């Protein structure tokens, strides 16, 4: 099992959710986060001068999947989230030791 941690643009959430669902990936946790990538924040020019924002609002999706769903999940997320522009986000993959479904006591991939 793996944890897919995807940082995406907030406006892409519903399309990403729908794309994942089409591949049979339903469970996820969504968190509001603030982030910065290689370009750091953004600076805007105003009449009054320059105003810089160091962190931009993003969403973090935590999705636990069985190993064979990792590539389908990456595809579904990339299809929507990859515009080719700066700030599209990133996906990080981590190994997951154990999952326990509290309502049934199931463990491992049965519990996802
Ligand atoms: N090295 C990193 N570690 C953790 N989060 C990151 C990292 N790089 C990017 N992010 C997250 O992804 C968001 C979008 O980054 P993005 O601008 O697409 O990356 P980059 O500029 O590095 O290509 C950031 O706002 C931040 O939340
Ligand atoms: Mg960037």
Secondary structure: elements and pairs:
Elements: E1 2-8, H1 13-22, E2 29-35, E3 42-46, E4 49-53, E5 56-65, H2 70-81, E6 90-95
Antiparallel strand pairs: 1-5, 1-6, 2-5, 3-4
Helix pairs in contact: 1-2
This protein binds adenosine-5'-diphosphate and magnesium ion.
The site of adenosine-5'-diphosphate (ADP) has 13 residues, from strand 5.
Structure commentary:
20% of the residues lie in helices and 36% in strands. It is of the alpha+beta class. It has one domain: Alpha-Beta Plaits (2-Layer Sandwich). Helix 1 packs antiparallel against helix 2. 15% of the residues are buried. Magnesium ion is lined by residues 37-39, 86-87.
Short description:
This protein is an alpha+beta fold. The protein has a single domain (2-111), classed as Alpha-Beta Plaits, CATH 3.30.70. The protein is built from two helices and six strands.
């Amino acid at each position: 099992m793996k944890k897919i941690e995807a940082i995406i643009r907030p406006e892409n959430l519903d399309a990403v959710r729908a794309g994942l669902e089409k591949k049979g990936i339903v469970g996820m946790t969504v968190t509001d986060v603030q982030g910065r990538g290689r370009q750091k924040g953004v600076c805007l020019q105003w009449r009054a001068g320059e105003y810089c924002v160091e962190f931009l609002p993003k969403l973090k999706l935590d999705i636990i999947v069985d190993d064979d769903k990792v590539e389908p999940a990456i595809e579904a997320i990339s299809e929507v989230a990859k515009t080719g522009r700066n700030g599209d986000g990133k996906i990080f993959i981590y190994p997951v030791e154990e999952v326990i479904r509290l309502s049934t006591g199931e463990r491992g991939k049965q519990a996802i």
